[in-house]
């Protein structure tokens, strides 16, 4: 349980040490990012649940959905879904690491680096009996880990492009946790549909971003000087 809070605890330790992330744009109004965060978070699991049976995956029943609350209850389930992942991770991934990577890398490259770290961090869950990841086969598990790279681009979109910041990332992570708990994929076809759904969403967002101008200068933080490299040289770069 303590290890599950690793990313956010690491960000807190760095903050207490005085190591801050680059200043980012102020979080926009909740109506701007909340619907997108909730929908994009739940969409891959919904796609897998709907499309999976068309390709041979077992169809989900109401018993599968209600089994999620067996032995715990709705309130405990919602509490765990909020803490285990959204609050335990996002202050580290999207609150600390993503802004620092974005000083030097493009959104796509940032998603590649962060998504890879995020996937490797999840590997121990496949070895812990009782976790959802431990129920996945090797191919489904690999698909779940690979999906974290394009999924990281979606998190970038709602946290930076829509200026939702960490709150938007928390909502998206929460929506994804709940959707995967209620609509779990347990077959290869469902896992592939989940991965295709994530890839499709990321590709659609890339097209949308390419066609839509970025926020006007007044909505962005001013350029600032940041360290670059181990030689101590500094350069001026936008922090968003």
From TrEMBL:
<feature type="transmembrane region" description="Helical">
    <location>
        <begin position="189"/>
        <end position="210"/>
    </location>
</feature>
<keyword id="KW-0645">Protease</keyword>
<dbReference type="Pfam" id="PF02517">
    <property type="entry name" value="Rce1-like"/>
</dbReference>
<feature type="transmembrane region" description="Helical">
    <location>
        <begin position="101"/>
        <end position="121"/>
    </location>
</feature>
<keyword id="KW-1133">Transmembrane helix</keyword>
<keyword id="KW-0482">Metalloprotease</keyword>
<keyword id="KW-0472">Membrane</keyword>
<dbReference type="InterPro" id="IPR042150">
    <property type="entry name" value="MmRce1-like"/>
</dbReference>
<keyword id="KW-0812">Transmembrane</keyword>
<feature type="transmembrane region" description="Helical">
    <location>
        <begin position="141"/>
        <end position="158"/>
    </location>
</feature>
<dbReference type="GO" id="GO:0008237">
    <property type="term" value="F:metallopeptidase activity"/>
</dbReference>
<feature type="domain" description="CAAX prenyl protease 2/Lysostaphin resistance protein A-like">
    <location>
        <begin position="74"/>
        <end position="178"/>
    </location>
</feature>
<dbReference type="InterPro" id="IPR003675">
    <property type="entry name" value="Rce1/LyrA-like_dom"/>
</dbReference>
<feature type="transmembrane region" description="Helical">
    <location>
        <begin position="165"/>
        <end position="183"/>
    </location>
</feature>
<feature type="transmembrane region" description="Helical">
    <location>
        <begin position="33"/>
        <end position="55"/>
    </location>
</feature>
<keyword id="KW-0378">Hydrolase</keyword>
<protein>
    <submittedName>
        <fullName>CPBP family intramembrane metalloprotease</fullName>
    </submittedName>
</protein>
<feature type="transmembrane region" description="Helical">
    <location>
        <begin position="67"/>
        <end position="89"/>
    </location>
</feature>
<feature type="region of interest" description="Disordered">
    <location>
        <begin position="213"/>
        <end position="240"/>
    </location>
</feature>
